[in-house]
Amino acid sequence: MRIHQQLRYLLILVLVCGSVALAATKWNVQPQESKLTFVGSQQGAQFTGAFDRFTADIKFDPQDLPGSRFDVKIDMASVNSRDSERDDTIKSDDLFAVKQYPSARYVTDRFTAKGGNKFAATGKLTIRNVTRDVPLEFTFESKGGSAWLKGGAQLKRLDFGVGQGDWKDTEQVGNDVQVNFVLLLKP
Amino acid sequence: MQLKNTLTRYGALAQLFHWVIVVLIITQFVLALRAEGLSPIKKIGVLGTHKSIGITILVLAVLRLAWRLFNPVPPQPRGIPRWQELGAHVSHFLLYALLFITPVLGWLMSSARAFSVSWFGLVTLPDFIEPNKAAFERLRDLHEFMAWTLATIALIHLAAALKHHFFDRDDVLRRMLPVWERDAQS
Question: Which fold has domain B12-185?
Fold first, then answer.
């Protein structure tokens, strides 16, 4: 009898822990409403672009940050800066080199709550096979079952080798790039 | 030399506007023609400077016209044929118009290409039109047409000034030159 009772406690413990670990909701990103964009600068003027194709595995629960995780894969050839000539330049070997490095990836390590619906994450971004720590800041707003995840990160293109040869010069094309995302999540 | 125009010559400010714009326009042609065939990053640099100078010309044209409104220009020499007087008025009007039209078309064509205009990296100008390839191509053709029209009229304007100086031996050219009064009298 005692053994059975202990087993029952153990079972309850396993179930509780298990359900906590599984609690971070696995969301489905709605591609129509979701956007991954960036802002770069040339000659001091900003220009915006987007990645038309990316996939994002989002597990997120404000109540379960340790169980949350983002894993985003970006199709670098889908870059769209609203000018095809500039897109071809961005995809060329000195910049994204999409033939050699067709995708970029971002995976989170750890989340922290910043109060209200604000959160921050640390994570690793890989572009051109170069991996660097890139922190994220974002908001999470859930409404009637679905949720909006909105945020961004700042990075320096040259940290990832995006800019070889003449493109190492940051006078014409700035080093700072702001990346922004808006994701509509549904269960 | 006086700041304001007199009855016989252009003042210092009007001359400064005139000659600075001349130098900037020549620079614009050099930059625009050099940009063709450059590698993308060099092109961004050269065209960035071209855009900054273009906006400078636009601002100078506004200031110059405002100054002209409050400061009448010296009258045309007496006794020149009616068609020449008319020709001078028409070409001056067109030159002013093109000083506005050409940079504005360049600005719009940059917006249509999704390359916003920055003035020397200090101020980014707003985009009044959405990126659109067909609009870009039309605006680019118009910008180039206006630039070459400007160059053509400017050359006629130069030829007329030289004709006045060397053939008519009047002071039409000299009154736009920064010579001192006593030199001008000689």
Answer: Fumarate Reductase Cytochrome B subunit (1.20.950)
Closest-CA distance of chain A to residue B116, Å: 6
Contact A47 B121 (CB under 8 A): no
From chain B, pick out residues whose CB is under 8 angstroms from the CB of A82.
114, 131
Tally the domains of chain A. 1
Residue-range domain boundaries for chain B: 12-185
A-B contacts at Cβ under 8 angstroms: 53
Q: Which among A43, A47, A166 is the nearest to B39, CB-wise? A: A166
DSSP B61-88: HHHHHHHHHTSPPPPPPTT--HHHHHHH
| Structure-block tokens of residue B136 | 């870009």
Tell if the CB–CB gap between B124 and A46 is shorter than 8 Å. Answer: yes
Closest chain B CA to residue A42: B44
CATH number of domain containing A45: 2.40.128.110
Q: Is residue A63 included in any domain, yes or no?
A: yes
Amino acid at A64: D
pLDDT at B186: 39
Judged by phi (left if over 0) then psi (alpha if -120 to 50, else beta), residue A4 lies in: alpha
Residue B184 has pLDDT above 50, yes or no: no
Per-residue pLDDT tens digits for A24-34: 789 999 999 99
For the cut 80, the answer to whether the pLDDT of residue A71 exceeds it is: yes
**For residue A10, is it within any domain?**
no
